[in-house]
Design goal:
Elements: E1 7-12, E2 27-32, E3 35-39, H1 45-51, E4 61-63, H2 69-72, H3 75-84, E5 91-95, H4 99-109, H5 111-121, H6 126-129, E6 130-134, E7 139-143, E8 147-153, E9 163-169, E10 173-177, H7 184-189
Parallel strand pairs: 3-4, 4-5, 5-6
Antiparallel strand pairs: 1-2, 2-3, 7-8, 8-9, 9-10
Bound molecules: zinc ion.
Zinc ion is lined by residues 66, 68, 156, 179.
Length: 190
């Protein structure tokens, strides 16, 4: 365990897709070994990360708990904003069900702008930097030298693919769920 303790920053804690009020739409930041891990991308997540002191171009990992818009609306724009701010490395993005399709659709919607900036500004091609990963079962989602991430399905009908995530870092473990009803599975995960 180094000086860089794992930290949790609540970027958005408001439920529901409506915009406005004192709280922002759902998003959470974990800082693990100095790297940002973003869980859920509600509207406003980019500016909330900046408020939390995270340089967007350091974005490396994104996780979506489920595909309600208050959890995914700014997923594509967040990656885009990181790229606009100078992102040059790969971003791995993990989510259930439509993660691949959503990523491709966003990149397709921005293809003109991305293509222009690659030529005009010499930027790396965003379409090659973002790597989506879909998961649809309980268990290991990703693992690197700093953290092991596992998922469990929670109860958010009528959505079937709704998950909680457990992050096991060297110094502590953190469990974050998306929306759920009472869920023994979540209790077990934590
Ligand atoms: Zn939801």
């Amino acid at each position: 365990m180094g000086e860089q303790r794992t930290e949790i920053v609540l970027l958005g804690t408001k439920g529901g897709p409506r915009v406005g009020g004192a709280r922002k739409n759902p998003a959470t930041l974990l800082k693990i070994a100095g790297l940002p891990y973003v869980i859920d991308c509600g509207y406003g997540v980019s500016t909330q990360l900046l408020q939390a002191g995270v340089a967007l171009e350091t974005l490396r990992y994104i996780f979506l708990t489920h595909m309600h818009s208050d959890h995914n609306l700014e997923y594509g724009p967040l990656v885009y904003n990181a790229w606009a701010n100078g992102l040059k490395h790969r971003v791995d993005a993990y989510g259930p069900s439509t993660m691949n399709r959503q990523t491709a659709a966003f990149l397709d919607s921005m293809q003109f702008d991305i293509g222009i900036r690659v030529i005009d500004e010499g930027r790396p091609d965003l379409r090659e930097l973002i790597v989506p990963h879909e998961f649809d079962t309980d268990g290991l989602v990703m693992e690197n030298a700093d953290v092991r991430v596992s998922a469990v399905r929670v109860r958010h009908p009528p959505i079937k693919d709704a998950f909680a995530l457990r992050f096991d870092a060297a110094d502590r473990s953190v469990v974050i769920s998306g929306d759920t009803n009472y869920s023994p599975e979540l209790i077990e995960l934590a």
